[in-house]
């Protein structure tokens, strides 16, 4: 008998995913992520996690993340913070789902 009521929900990892980020004025910029991790349901009040290269200079301005391929839009709930894991230096963002295209 297994007890998984505290287990992390299944996640989907997208490495090197191309997304668009939006700043407070509505400007959008294409960026490449190290990792976009999407949870099927909220996990610790987050719906997704994104890690981007530190070389992306607009990291402080990011307010929304849009994935046209996945049909999802998230708002930044927390971050950026410096990634303590991973092979390359990165910024980490925790995201909340605000729109999902349902076909």
Describe the structure.
The protein has 103 residues and is mostly beta strands. It has one domain. The protein has no helices and eight strands. The chain has strands spanning 12-15, 18-22, 28-32, 35-43, 46-53, 64-67, 72-82, 90-100. Strands 1-4-5-8-7-6-2-3 form an eight-stranded antiparallel sheet, with no helix packed on it. A hairpin with a 5-residue loop joins strand 2 and strand 3 (28-32). The chain is globular, with a radius of gyration of 14 Å. The N and C termini lie far apart (38 Å). 21% of the residues are buried.
Topology at a glance:
Elements: E1 12-15, E2 18-22, E3 28-32, E4 35-43, E5 46-53, E6 64-67, E7 72-82, E8 90-100
Antiparallel strand pairs: 1-4, 2-3, 2-6, 4-5, 5-8, 6-7, 7-8
Strands ordered across the widest β-sheet: 1-4-5-8-7-6-2-3
- What share of the residues lie within helices? under 10%
* Count of strand segments: 8
Give the overall shape, derived from the CA principal axes: globular
* End-to-end C-alpha gap: 38 Å
Mean pLDDT: 88
Low-confidence stretches: 1-5
* Structural class designation: mainly beta
- Content of β-strand: over 45%
H-E order? EEEEEEEE
Number of helices: 0
Q: Total domains, how many?
A: 1
Whole-number radius of gyration? Answer: 14 Å
Q: Tell me about the largest β-sheet.
A: 8 strands, antiparallel
């Amino acid at each position: 008998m297994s007890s998984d009521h505290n287990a992390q929900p299944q996640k989907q990892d997208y490495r090197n995913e191309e997304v668009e980020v939006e700043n407070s004025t509505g400007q959008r910029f294409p960026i490449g992520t190290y990792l976009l991790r999407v949870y099927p349901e909220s996990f610790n009040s987050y719906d997704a996690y994104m890690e981007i290269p530190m070389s992306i200079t607009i990291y402080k301005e990011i307010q929304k993340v849009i994935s046209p391929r996945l049909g999802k839009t998230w708002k930044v709930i927390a971050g950026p913070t410096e990634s303590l894991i991973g092979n390359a230096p990165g910024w980490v963002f925790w995201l909340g789902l605000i729109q999902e295209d349902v076909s």
